[in-house]
């Protein structure tokens, strides 16, 4: 999943190099989008969605903690009160966002899953309006109506709900988890930098996974098995560990760092709009690699949802 963290209401103190910021934000979205196809293939023989989500959290935490230890080791210090907040952030927001994203991809076409999950920013805006009592511009309500029309087209409700119902439920819950993730991050970002926030988030995500399904019980032998790349690359096989490494490094750590870097040069709203490249890239890659196709109505619905998100971002 589009794993990007746009923080509502946060703006960088200085906008220094906008061109670099756009390049970083678009590169992150492209990597996140390509990662959807890699995850789909990685869920092959012997690798469950739960185990893949656990491995992603475990190895991402290792990389993030090494980065923070080498860059700003003092940021690993934390107060007892903040530790409780970070524990909730990691054990709930991070775990749910990662897990529901993988579960949705397992049952739905990549483009459909990402369009549904990308409803998360609209949920954040709804929370800001009705719970946070913040004012939003009139165009937000236009964006909400546009997104609902797009959602109807994407899930094809007139066709006896032809999509996998559980997959749609996972994707919509993933959108809610994404909203929870953003709202928690919004409150934490003022007290610590995003990289150390991610480090602690993935730490507590790993601790929760250790309780639910201990990492030492992982089927490590599965990582050495060869997995077919499926689709148009079905004749090619790679080790499972190579796919997991891609998901961790190029599908999680690198794009997160690019997003953090982009936020140093661009407002968060612009970074979030650049993130909408993710479902576009994911759909193109899924078509070219995995032979996944969407109907014209679903494509139109996806474009309407993306347009609605862009409109909602400018309304905040």
Describe the structure.
This protein is mainly alpha-helical and 316 residues long. The chain has one domain (18-314). Helix content is 69%, strand content 2%. The chain has a two-stranded antiparallel sheet. Strand 1 and strand 2 (237-239) form a beta hairpin. The longest helix has 28 residues, at 80-107. The protein is globular. The chain starts with 17 loop residues before the first helix and ends with a helix. The model is unreliable at 2-15 (pLDDT under 50).
Question: Notable features of this structure?
Answer:
single chain, 316 residues, mainly alpha, two-stranded antiparallel sheet, 12 helices, globular
Percent strand: under 5%
Range of helix content: 55-70%
Distance between the termini: 24 Å
**Number of E strands:** 2
Could you tell me the radius of gyration in angstroms?
19 Å
Write down the secondary-structure element order: HHHHHHHHEEHHHH
Number of domain modules: 1
Can you list the strand order of the major beta sheet? Answer: 1-2
Structural class: mainly alpha
Inertia-based shape: globular
Largest sheet: 2 strands, antiparallel
Report mean pLDDT, rounded to a whole number.
Answer: 85
Uncertain stretches of 5 or more adjacent residues: 2-15
Number of helices: 12
């Amino acid at each position: 999943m589009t794993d990007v963290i746009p923080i509502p209401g946060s703006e960088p103190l200085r906008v220094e190099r906008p061109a670099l910021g756009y390049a970083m934000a678009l590169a992150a979205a492209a990597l996140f989008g390509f990662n959807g196809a890699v995850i789909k293939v990685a869920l092959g023989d012997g690798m469950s969605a739960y185990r893949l989500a656990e491995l992603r959290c475990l190895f991402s935490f290792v990389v993030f903690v090494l980065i923070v230890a080498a860059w700003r080791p003092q940021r690993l210090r934390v107060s007892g009160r903040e530790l409780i907040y970070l524990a909730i952030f990691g054990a709930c927001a991070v775990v749910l966002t990662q897990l529901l994203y993988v579960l949705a991809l397992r049952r739905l076409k990549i483009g459909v899953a990402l369009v549904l999950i990308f409803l998360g920013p609209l949920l954040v805006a709804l929370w800001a309006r009705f719970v946070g009592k913040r004012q939003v511009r009139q165009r937000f309500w236009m964006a909400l109506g546009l997104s609902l029309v797009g959602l109807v087209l994407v899930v094809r409700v007139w066709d006896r709900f032809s999509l996998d119902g559980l997959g749609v439920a996972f994707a919509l819950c993933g959108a809610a988890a994404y909203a929870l993730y953003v709202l928690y991050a919004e409150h934490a970002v003022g007290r610590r930098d995003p990289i150390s926030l991610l480090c602690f988030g993935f730490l507590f995500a790993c601790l929760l996974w250790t309780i639910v399904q201990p990492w030492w019980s992982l089927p490590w032998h599965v990582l050495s098995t060869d997995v077919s790349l499926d689709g148009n690359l079905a004749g090619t096989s790679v080790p499972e560990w190579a796919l997991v490494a891609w998901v961790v490094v190029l599908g999680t750590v690198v794009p997160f760092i690019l997003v953090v870097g982009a936020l140093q040069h661009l407002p968060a709203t612009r970074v979030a709009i650049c993130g909408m490249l993710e479902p576009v890239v994911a759909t193109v890659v899924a078509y070219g690699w995995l032979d996944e196709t969407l109907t014209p109505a679903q494509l139109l619905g996806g474009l309407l949802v993306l347009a609605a998100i862009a409109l909602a971002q400018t309304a905040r």
